[in-house]
Inverse folding.
């Protein structure tokens, strides 16, 4: 027999209080990520497909890299190397090749067993480093404009980003060292640096890097330095921050194979750092992908040992494409900031009578059949980037020739 209830029981249970408003549903997305929607690259690439426009927005090559590197991956697959879980830190062959590369090119000595960690591309290296090294409330000083994953990864780690804006000056984007110093507070945990710099194409000079290093040592800061475009320098030279006095033990250096060898889909990246920093980053990385790209790791190990003629030819080819696209953009009426590195060129649309990069890029495919990316998405201070637009030149020459022809329709 069911237990009897009394009016008091109903009152206690709140069943007789009349209708009540239901609580508002909690948003599904973590509030730390609420400001980040679909990336601009996905939006603009979809627009390129929809309109049949030439996609100079997203930074991926339209041809594969060296045949011998691709065949090395096929050979690894056939030989059963990497088809099962590779070692957590990366296959020994690749870790050794990375350490040899750092020694050969920059005179930096790293132990492949304790000071090298292979990641799922540079993007995971950035995420794992920030997740490992930040506590909620820590401040991260980053150069603005910045690669969009920086902001999201800082947010996921509970950090606070503090942008220092690179500004155009005499044809290049420059870092205001006084502004950088002023951005550092007692809450600053680390500086997140990118050189060669995406999207502006600037390559920080030895003097600028020395000042960053001195500041990091003085204020006892860690530095994460994204150097994925290290082999794509056309003017000046790439100098790793870890090579400066006092920086070897406080710098996490990140690079990857995608940009250098034109196999962006393989997602093979790495960090080099002190044993303590590598251990910290590995602690986060093991709960992200754990491992990835097994057979491709063996191929990238061979790629890192390609002769210098490969790197020279890569630079020469991209330099010619930079000059071709830069000249075409100038002829079309843009103000052009010719990049010293990377494979992107930033332009100012104000000479065309435009001020809104978003509106300009969304209309560009219909106007002349080309897709670009508005630089404002790379800024916290959106107004600083509003009139700037980025184009990628890591495409075949005939594609760039056609893009230049189409862009001339914009000429006043």
């Amino acid at each position: 027999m069911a237990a009897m209830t009394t009016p008091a029981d109903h009152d206690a249970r709140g069943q007789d209080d009349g209708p009540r408003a239901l609580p508002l549903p909690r948003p599904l997305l973590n509030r730390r990520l609420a400001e980040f929607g679909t990336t601009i690259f996905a939006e603009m690439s979809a627009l390129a497909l929809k309109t049949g426009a030439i996609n100079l927005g997203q930074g991926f090559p339209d041809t594969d890299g060296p045949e011998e590197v691709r065949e090395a991956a096929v050979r690894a697959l056939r030989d059963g190397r990497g088809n099962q879980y590779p070692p957590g830190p990366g296959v020994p062959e690749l870790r050794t090749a990375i350490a040899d590369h750092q020694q050969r090119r920059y005179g930096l000595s790293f132990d492949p067993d304790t000071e090298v960690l292979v990641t799922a591309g540079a993007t995971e290296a950035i995420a794992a480093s920030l997740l490992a090294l930040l506590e909620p409330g820590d401040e991260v000083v980053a150069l603005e404009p910045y690669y969009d994953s920086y902001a999201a990864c800082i947010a996921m780690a509970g950090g606070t980003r503090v942008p220092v804006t690179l500004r155009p000056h005499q044809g290049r984007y420059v870092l205001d060292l006084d502004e950088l110093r002023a951005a550092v507070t007692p809450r600053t945990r680390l500086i997140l640096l990118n050189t060669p710099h995406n999207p502006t194409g600037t390559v920080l000079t030895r003097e600028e890097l020395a000042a960053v290093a001195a500041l990091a040592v003085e204020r006892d800061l860690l530095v994460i330095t994204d150097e994925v475009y290290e082999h794509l320098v056309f003017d000046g030279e790439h100098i790793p921050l870890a090579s400066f006095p006092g920086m070897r033990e406080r710098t996490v250096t990140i690079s990857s194979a995608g940009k250098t060898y034109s196999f962006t889909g393989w997602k093979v990246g790495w960090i080099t750092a002190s044993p303590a920093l590598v251990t910290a980053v590995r602690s986060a990385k093991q709960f992200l992908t754990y491992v990835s790209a097994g057979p491709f790791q063996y191929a990238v190990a061979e790629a890192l040992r390609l002769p210098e003629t490969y790197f020279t030819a890569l630079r020469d080819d991209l330099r010619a494409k930079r000059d071709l696209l830069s000249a075409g953009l100038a002829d079309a009426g843009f103000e052009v900031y010719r990049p010293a590195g990377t494979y992107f060129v930033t332009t100012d649309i104000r000479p065309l009578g435009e001020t809104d990069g978003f509106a300009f890029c969304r209309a560009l495919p219909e106007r002349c059949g080309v897709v670009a990316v508005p630089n404002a998405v790379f800024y916290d201070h959106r107004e600083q980037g509003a009139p700037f637009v980025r184009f990628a030149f890591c495409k075949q020459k005939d594609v760039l020739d056609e893009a230049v022809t189409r862009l001339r329709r914009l000429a006043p």
User: Anything to note?
Assistant: Residues 1-14 have pLDDT under 50 and may be disordered. The radius of gyration is 24 Å. DSSP finds 15 helices and 15 strands in the chain. The longest strand covers residues 188-194.
